[in-house]
């Protein structure tokens, strides 16, 4: 799923972020009530949220093609 986010539009990324945050919320409740079976899913969702937010930032700043150089200054 890592590479899929780069192919999405900003609107699709916004929708995906909302979906992931809802799932994170539900997983948090499951963990608190002791019903969470797949504990690794919490970590996976958290990292997917970070990936979506990173791609959104890159697309908004116009640096999608410069993978690995985000945040580095040329000076």
Characterise this structure.
The protein has a single domain, classed as Helix Hairpins. The chain is 61% helix and 0% strand. It has helices spanning 10-33, 40-61. The termini are far apart.
Structural class: mainly alpha
Radius of gyration: 15 Å
* Oligomeric state of this protein: single chain
Largest sheet: none
Number of helices: 2
CATH architecture tag: Orthogonal Bundle
Strand content: under 5%
CATH class: Mainly Alpha
Low-confidence stretches: none
Average pLDDT, to the nearest integer? Answer: 87
Shape: elongated
Total discrete domains: 1
Strand runs, count: 0
Order of helices and strands: HH
Question: What key attributes describe this structure?
Answer:
mainly alpha; Helix Hairpins; 75 residues
In brief:
With about 80 residues, this protein is mainly alpha-helical. Helix content is about 60%, strand content about 0%.
What order do the helices and strands come in, and which of them pair?
Elements: H1 10-33, H2 40-61
Helix pairs in contact: 1-2
